[in-house]
Design brief:
Blueprint: H1 2-32, E1 51-57, H2 62-72, E2 80-86, H3 90-99, E3 107-111, H4 118-128, E4 134-138, H5 148-155, E5 161-168, H6 174-196, E6 207-211, H7 212-218, H8 228-238, E7 243-253, H9 259-275, H10 277-281, H11 287-297, H12 299-315, H13 324-344, H14 352-371, H15 393-411, H16 415-429
Parallel strand pairs: 1-2, 1-4, 2-3, 5-7
Antiparallel strand pairs: 4-6, 5-6
Helix pairs in contact: 1-6, 1-12, 1-13, 2-3, 9-14, 12-14, 12-16, 15-16
Length: about 425
């Protein structure tokens, strides 16, 4: 009896936890409505700090790299270099080089002979051969405006590190359009609004700049980390280095093309979130700001906490009889928070139910894998629409297991638990 009550309260608590982060984002969005959101600075005069743009590539389409170089060569700034570090095999690297018509003098494309440390290792390699006073980190699909470095050079005279706004530039199909809206929402709620409230801003590895001396003092990127930017953000905060969000420096990026691409991308983010759970706990030293920062670090686990405990308690229905009141209260709390969130985050898409399901299950599975440090294969998000629009076999098997257990519980007369598991099975089945 005591175990069932404990699990019931745990279920209600998990619904409150998941709901809290959703409601908190609504509060963030409302707090900046009607405010002036542009960062203002005098851009008339140009200083001469040398800037190194560092980009790690692996398994990228050759056209993507060629377009990247053409974009960066048009930057209106006198003193900068571009260092592209490839972790590709020799034949792929030669293909990339042969596809570039002309490499500018200030652009270096270098292949590492040893692919150690994943993306972070490649970025550290690039830093070590760079010479800029300021370091800028971008992804291969990044596209920037001509005054990009002028703005960065000005802001880095005031701040030690800056995070910049990401904006999706492809939004043709359903997934791309929703991802565009998700990114806009994230930039406003989790970066712009949190910056206005002086919360801890975490760098985004796709749009981040930092003074070299600060980077060297903090220490290089943590090699092997799945989300090296989140890990760097924790160390920056613990070292009292403020990352300023700059809203008017925009990095144009790409959305995942298919539901499968979206699944693997969010799973990777969630894996890193779970992997850094205990490192994130160190932020609690910073008081309430640190607590809020910790919630940001583990946000993918928070999103999916209620679903995890809903599955757990429903499956345990064979041996533990949890009162339907606990289920009803927790589902009601979660449903209300979803409605509040949805009203304020309006997304127009006929496939939103599929996308929401993909986000939910990828965040749950990724976070658990990262928290338990279960090995995962590194997967680069495709930059061209060549991948199949289907989920991996593992999530399909998980859905089948939910269906089987729900059927067995129905035979045992556990109707409430059976309906819950069957509903969760359907949330996976609709994506197929």
């Amino acid at each position: 009896m005591q175990v069932s009550i404990f699990l019931g309260f745990l279920l209600v608590f998990s619904s409150l936890l998941s709901s809290s982060w959703l409601v908190l984002q609504v509060y963030y969005i409302k707090s900046i409505k009607g405010e002036e959101i542009e960062n203002r600075i005098d851009l008339q005069s140009q200083n001469n700090h040398k800037i190194s743009i560092i980009i790690a590539i692996r398994n990228e389409d050759t056209d993507t790299i060629n377009e990247l170089i053409q974009n960066l060569r048009n930057i209106n700034y006198d003193n900068y270099e571009v260092i592209i570090v490839s972790d590709d095999p020799p034949e792929k690297f030669r293909e990339i080089l042969s596809n570039i018509s002309k490499i500018p003098e200030n652009v270096k494309i270098i292949r590492r002979s040893e692919n150690k440390g994943r993306k972070a290792g490649a970025l550290n390699y690039g830093v070590n051969i760079s010479s800029g006073e300021y370091l800028v980190f971008l992804d291969a699909e990044a596209r920037v405006e001509n005054d990009f470095l002028i703005k960065i050079s000005k802001y880095l005279t005031q701040f030690d590190a800056i995070a910049m706004r990401l904006r999706v530039r492809n939004k043709e199909n359903c997934v791309e359009n929703v991802y565009y809206q998700m990114t806009e929402h994230s930039m406003n709620a989790l970066f712009l609004a949190r910056d206005r409230k002086n919360f801890i801003i975490f760098p985004n590895g796709s749009a981040f700049a930092i003074k070299r001396r600060v980077f060297e003092r903090i220490g290089e990127w943590k090699e092997g980390a799945i989300t090296e930017d989140l890990e760097m953000g924790i160390r920056l905060a613990l070292s009292n280095v403020k990352v300023k969000f700059i809203n008017n420096i925009v990095i144009y990026t790409l959305s995942p093309f298919t539901l499968s691409d979206l699944y693997f991308q969010i799973k990777r983010w969630a894996y890193g979130s779970g992997e850094l759970f205990f490192e994130g706990l160190l932020l609690l030293r910073k008081g309430l700001r640190g607590l809020e920062g910790f919630l940001y670090v583990i946000q993918w686990g928070i999103y999916s906490a209620f679903i995890f405990f809903l599955v757990l308690t429903s499956v345990l229905g064979f041996i533990v009889n949890i009162s339907p009141y606990f289920y009803t209260i927790s589902i009601l709390i979660y449903t209300i928070s979803i409605l509040v969130y949805s009203i304020n985050f309006k997304v127009n898409s006929y496939n939103l139910h599929k996308i929401s399901s993909v986000v939910l299950w990828s965040s749950l599975i990724g976070f658990i894998q990262g928290f338990l440090h279960i090995g995962t294969k590194w997967r680069v998000t495709p930059k061209t629409n060549k991948s199949k629009d289907e989920l991996p076999i593992s999530i399909k098997i998980f859905g089948i297991l939910l269906f089987i257990i729900s059927f067995l519980e129905l035979l045992k007369g556990l109707i409430f638990e059976s309906l819950i598991l069957f509903s969760l099975f359907l949330s996976i089945a609709i994506v197929q």
